[in-house]
């Protein structure tokens, strides 16, 4: 009788682990193909300080960045929007001002595409945004693609706070982040 209870407990535990793993893999990351990775839609975190590495502003590779503005955002923002992204080895691409307030970028319910040059990264595992200004801005997602690394999408779906770097860091390892 005791062996039957242990066996039933073991089977129940295995089913629980399989169900947990299935639900975790369906929410933690969704790979649409080998060349694209979509990071989970969890709450982005503020970054108390972000060190911009002076040697990381050089251009060696091209990136296409597609930023979707949420439909609940203001009609368009005139705020300064800065972008930083990189890999687990500490390579960083920094754009001090990605927006052009005169061109109507970042209108509600729209996607803006930017071609950016920067140092060559490995797989991109973090992205941070910075907003400075009175208008406010609701970002939906940031998609980054390049010929030399897989495409990644970071789902924000939040208002970007004013005056602080803010975003996602899915890098692993001690050298994973240029954050101080």
UniProtKB/TrEMBL annotation:
Q: Give the source's domain of life in one word.
A: Eukaryota
Q: Which Gene3D superfamilies match?
A: PLAT/LH2 domain
Keyword annotations for this protein?
Signal
One Pfam match, given by its short name, reads ATS3
- Record's signal peptide: 1-25
Q: Per its UniProt record, what PANTHER family does this chain match?
A: OS01G0172800 PROTEIN, PLAT DOMAIN-CONTAINING PROTEIN
The protein depicted here goes by the name Uncharacterized protein
């Amino acid at each position: 009788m005791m062996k039957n209870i242990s066996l039933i407990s073991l089977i129940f535990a295995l089913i629980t682990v399989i169900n947990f793993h299935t639900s975790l893999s369906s929410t933690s990351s969704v790979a649409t193909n080998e060349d694209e990775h979509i990071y989970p839609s969890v709450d982005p975190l503020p970054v108390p300080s972000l060190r911009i590495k002076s040697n990381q502003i050089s251009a060696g590779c091209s990136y296409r960045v597609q930023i979707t503005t949420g439909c609940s955002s203001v009609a368009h923002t005139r705020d300064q929007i800065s972008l930083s992204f990189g890999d687990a080895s500490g390579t960083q691409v920094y754009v001090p001002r990605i927006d052009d307030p005169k061109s109507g970028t970042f209108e509600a319910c729209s996607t803006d595409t930017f071609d950016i040059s920067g140092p060559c990264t490995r797989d991109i595992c973090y992205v941070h945004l910075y907003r400075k200004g009175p208008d406010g801005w609701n970002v939906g997602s940031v998609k980054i693609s390049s010929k030399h690394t897989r495409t990644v999408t970071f789902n924000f779906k939040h208002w970007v706070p004013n005056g602080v770097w803010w975003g996602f860091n899915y890098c692993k390892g001690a050298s994973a982040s240029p954050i101080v």
